[in-house]
Amino acid sequence: MQSSKNYNETSKLHAYFDCAFAFMTFTWILFTLMAAFMQAWRNAFQKQLSTTVDVYGTTLARFLFAPIFAFSYLAFLYNQQPVTSEVSFTHKFWFYVVIAGVSQIYATALMVKLFQQKNYAIGVGLAKSEAILAALVGVLFLHEHLTVWGWVGVSIGAVAVFLLSKGRQHTELSIKTLMIGLGSGLCFAITSLLVREASLELGMLPFLHRAAWVLCSLISFQCIIMLIYLGIFSRQTLYKMWQRLGLTFKVSVCSFLASLGWFSAMSMQSVAIVKTLGQIEILFSLLISTFFFKEKLARTDHLGLWLVIVAAIMVIWA
User: Which regions span the lipid bilayer (predicted)?
Assistant: First the structure.
């Protein structure tokens, strides 16, 4: 009788963990899709802004209004789900935040330069080398693990990036464009990996609260450092941003929602997996490029974009 009771309790426990695992899986996928969609629009608005504002101003637009939304979201989380655990910020946490913040600033600046080399969708496609580089750096230096299918998906993504690195009018590989794209992707990869490490330093909190604290810390640091830099060296850039305040605001809102999705997903799942699924952003970018910017793509560009989607599907299966 006792054995039957223990069996029922064990069965209920297994069922509970199965439901929790399914919920976590579904949640990180939703956060990633939201992040990819909002990031596609953020990049589109940044491309528009870059026509009248320089690289540094276009980069600042990403962070300028985001801290307001980030701290409001954090307050909302604590109101809806109060946490009694005291938050402890370690030296490692701040180290990860500072390095991630600087890396993301460089990554964004390189992406803006990438938009000037190629059209919108291809620029985003090249920057998505982040997923491949995040997998390599994570496995080599941060002891992350990928399944065989996960590696297959990442490899397909690598082929897609190679196809997308070809120029619009040329069949030869554009080395300059490729190097800018890989540089942007590497900086984004470092940012994503260190954001996850920073989140893990706040293990005393639920995953949503961890992600929110990292988000607030990171974008506040980035906003302050960029404002100080431009205030000293390029006040004209700040004036031009003021002239296009509405577009700057759109960039910040989309950036906040994208970062919220990325940070939340990466607090639950491996960076390489999240970022490979996040390559679905290129599909959103393709639609924006076609219908919003009226740009045309070459045949190899279409193949590369579809390979990105295949890679994302394989990662979900993995």
Answer: 20-38, 59-78, 93-112, 119-142, 148-165, 177-195, 207-233, 245-265, 271-293, 300-317
